[in-house]
Amino acid sequence: MSIKVMTSQAEKAYTLLQSDAEKIRKLIEVQLENLTMPQCPLYEEVLDTRMFGLSREIDFAVRLGLVEEEQGKQILSELERRLADLHDLTVQR
Amino acid sequence: MSIKVMTSQAEKAYTLLQSDAEKIRKLIEVQLENLTMPQCPLYEEVLDTRMFGLSREIDFAVRLGLVEEEQGKQILSELERRLADLHDLTVQR
To answer: What InterPro entries does this protein map onto (chains A, B) (predicted)?
Structure first.
């Protein structure tokens, strides 16, 4: 497959993964901003489910050779750090 | 993107989705074959999680333009039929 074509497909895949990650990031930010409000118990489950879904997409993109494993790991670990922050702040309250 | 290249990437994506679906199908078959044994309560949750993961992969492949939405729906609905069979047989026992 020509490099040029692979890159456009790979770029599209990476951009899609980043935008999916961004949606989860926004969910986390909303929760962080509303820490003073009573926590919706399901929130962590919603985030866990979204994270699992994103991890399946990343794994699929890596197996397709569209995204490097390292790139995928970075997307997930960045979100996991934010989730950990959210969890710590929630527990401290 | 040249048709030829798209097809090879699309074929690879579709083949990956089918092999992931096959893994779930095997899980269902094992459960069907062992219906006489006490049911592992987590089994349905494992299958649900796997189905959710596969649906995220399919959605990702469709958004990437690698797989037709209809193709994705067929993969899922075939598995859902088997899951329904499994559920019916489990409930009848």
So the answer is: UPF0358 (IPR009983), UPF0358_sf (IPR036270)
Identify the residue with better confidence: A92 or A13.
A13
| Domain B3-92 indexed as CATH 3.20.20.70 | no
Say which residue the tokens 């592992």 belong to: B40
| Burial call A73-89: b when 16+ CB within 10 Å, e when fewer | eebbeebeebbeebeee
Dist CA B24 CA B90 (whole Å): 17
- What is the pLDDT averaged over residues A27-54? 81
Identify the DSSP state of B39. P
Note whether B60 contacts A64, CB cutoff 8 Å: no
Q: Which residues of B touch A16 (CB under 8 A)?
A: 60, 63-64
pLDDT digits (tens, 9 = 90+) for B17-67: 999 999 999 988 888 887 766 666 677 888 889 999 999 999 999 999 999
Contacts of B56 in chain A (CB under 8 A): 53-54, 56-57
CB distance B63–A16 less than 8 Å?
A: yes
Nearest alpha carbon to residue B17 among B60, B47, B65, B48: B60
